[in-house]
Amino acid sequence: MIARANLQNRRVCCSPTRVPINTMRVAIAGGGLAGLSCAKYLVDAGYTPIVLERQAVLGGKVAAWKDEDGDWYETGLHIFFGAYPNMLQLFKELGIEERLQWKEHTMIFNQPQKPGTYSRFDFPNLPAPLNGITAILRNNDMLTWGEKIQLAKGLVPAMLRGQQYVEETDQYNFSEWLNRQGVSEEVQQDIFIAASKSLNFINPDEISAVVLLTALRAFLQEKNGTKMAFLDGAPTERLCQPLVDYITERGGEVRTTTSLKEILLNPDHTVRGFLLRGINGTEDEVLTADLYVSAMPVDPFKAILPAVWRQLPYFQQLQGLEGVPVINVHLWFDRKLTQVDHLLFSRSSLLSVYADMSNTCRAYANPERSMLELVLAPAKDWISKSDQEIVAATMQELEKLFPEQIPHPAKLLKFKVVKTPRSVYKATPGRQQCRPSQETPIANFYLTGDYTMQRYLASMEGAVLSGKLTAQAIASAHSESDPSDPGQTMQMPITQPVTNAATA
Ligand SMILES: Cc1cc2nc3c(=O)[nH]c(=O)nc-3n(C[C@H](O)[C@H](O)[C@H](O)COP(=O)(O)OP(=O)(O)OC[C@H]3O[C@@H](n4cnc5c(N)ncnc54)[C@H](O)[C@@H]3O)c2cc1C
Q1: Closest by alpha carbon to 235, among 421, 361, 128?
Q2: CA-to-CA distance for 274 and 262, rounded, in angstroms?
Q3: Which of 50, 249, 325, 352 could form a disulfide with 383 if both were Cys (CB 3.0 to 4.6 A apart)?
Q4: Ligand 1 pocket: which of 55, 78, 231, 469 to mutate (most atoms <8 Å of CB)?
Q5: Phi first, then psi: what are they for 81, rounded to 5°?
């Protein structure tokens, strides 16, 4: 038995490294993008992953369901960016690149002062950051020349000072940081509320400066960084299913409706097995594997953390992370409200981004009727309200966005509200130091998930990258058992953002 004092400082040893990799089983609790990406890269490296997902549907925060009419509704409106190299590489590896529907290179904002009108930031076909600078300089609806100069004076030096500087800004919320740079309240109101809400579902006076600055660096330093794509259908069918096929065709397993109830420990505090909750009156089941991964979100993982692990500083840091509430609203109308085939930034205090999915997404296409998908954020005051109250408030906001059609003549045919009380970790100042590495102090146990430490904050790209990093950590820690087998070498280039290039 290894003393607890030792546990604090080093990884606990266990035997599985002696098992040949080709037969090494890795149990992964959580079938969101991180768990599935981890399993995908593990099968590539010759391991046998077993993904265990609590819900009947895979995908976690990208999960989607069909209603009684066969219409899809989703956990969240999801946008893929040009600055998502690991996600784009994954699409390529799965052979499904054509499923990303790339939109015009522009960002479109509603104008609260002129209901029903839009202001655009059009990115010309120029190298970065010239295209971004031109897009900002050309837009005169949202920023005066004085504000543009003010913003440039504040932001440009920060962009040039590298990721190291950006990481240090985690001590400030974004409003504090902008105030320190001399950027006025008006500019904050105009652009950064929309940006904060779309990145983390909270306002600039809550969000850490590191989030906005990291995103700005990633987006603006790459020519197509801000280019956006919609998936051509529901993520469960169009992205998770190809991952499942890829994993299972290569010997892995994916089980839904399978919930991790408890992490069982050996006397030396390494993992002995995953206790899976029995369903429909069946007995709980113990699943044993050679290695174990949690791909669960941070909140449920903290709830099942074994008591003895709680005392380790590595796991204690997780107490600083907590999911933020968000609500995804779907509204089906009897007519077309707009022809805009793009994401829209509402600039409403109730709503964040939205899109008419009947224009943006092939599988939801309808030339006659609109289906709006809207993200309601910040959602802390709304998460416990009824669907009817949420829809009524949303419809009131839509009167400003579509004054010619709402409340008349457009008729709301039906709605679906999906509440996520704890979604991505709330990225307030100081959270960076709470984000854990994928490798834990327990030798046969790993973490993955968008909240674990990787460059992309809480996003689909972050989830995919974290899965890859976890697979890579497993491969480098457990590959010595059969070094003569060249097939066991991991081929998983980690694609880092341009921001890394400028670091230091
Ligand atoms: C409304 C909304 C909009 C978003 N928009 C965007 C966007 O436009 N662009 C973008 O990049 N990102 C966006 N995101 C963020 C993105 O969806 C997430 O960062 C990403 O999907 C997280 O993946 P994950 O695998 O880390 O976690 P999750 O998706 O949360 O997966 C964790 C999985 O673990 C499962 N689980 C939990 N407990 C157990 C248990 N005991 N046993 C077994 N399984 C368990 C869960 O059911 C879940 O499936 C959005 C998120 C939301 C909610």
Answers
A1: 361
A2: 6
A3: 325
A4: 78
A5: -110, 155
Q: Taking Cα atoms as reference points, which of 408, 400, 397, 404 lies closest to residue 375?
A: 397
Same CATH topology for 4-59+235-321+428-488 and 61-101+229-233+323-420: the answer is: no
pLDDT tens profile 44-69: 999 999 999 999 999 999 999 999 99
- Positive or negative, the CA dihedral 33, 462, 38, 89 is positive
For the chain, the residue count is 504
* Distance linking the first and last C-alpha atoms of the chain: 43
Confidence of residue 4 (pLDDT cuts 50, 70, 90): very low
58 φ/ψ sector (left φ>0, alpha ψ -120 to 50, else beta): beta
> Whole-prediction pTM value?
0.92
Residue 62 C-alpha to ligand 1 middle, in angstroms? Answer: 6
Mean pLDDT, the chain, rounded, equals 90
The total of other beta-carbon atoms located within 10 Å of residue 131's CB is: 20
Across-strand partners of 122?
106
Smallest CA separation from ligand 1 atom 52, residue: 76
For 61-101+229-233+323-420, which CATH superfamily applies? Protoporphyrinogen oxidase, mitochondrial; domain 2 (3.90.660.20)
Q: Where are the domains of the chain?
A: 4-59+235-321+428-488, 61-101+229-233+323-420, 120-225
Q: Is the confidence at residue 322, as pLDDT, over 90?
A: yes
Residue 155 is encoded by which pair of tokens?
Answer: 């932001």
Interatomic CA distance for residues 150 and 58, integer angstroms: 46
Residue 458 Cβ inside 6 Å of ligand 1? The answer reads yes
Cβ 52 under 6 angstroms from ligand 1: yes
pLDDT at 13 over 60: no
Tens of pLDDT, residues 78-121: 999 999 999 999 999 999 999 999 999 999 999 988 999 999 99
pLDDT of residue 184: 80
Measured CA to CA, the distance from residue 347 to residue 269 in angstroms comes to 50
Calpha distance 238→78 (Å, rounded) = 13
Q: How confident is the model at residue 445 (pLDDT cuts 50, 70, 90)?
A: very high
Please give the Cα distance from 34 to 103 (Å, whole number). Answer: 26
More reliable by pLDDT, 6 or 213: 213
Q: Class of the 4-59+235-321+428-488 domain?
A: alpha beta
Q: Is 53 in the pocket of ligand 1 (CB under 6 A)?
A: yes
Q: Which residue has the tokens 């990481």?
A: 167
Rounded to the nearest whole angstrom, what is the distance from the C-alpha of residue 336 to the centroid of ligand 1? 31
Q: Could you tell me the two tokens for 55? A: 């819900």
Ligand 1: does its nearest atom lie under 6 Å from the Cβ of 34? yes
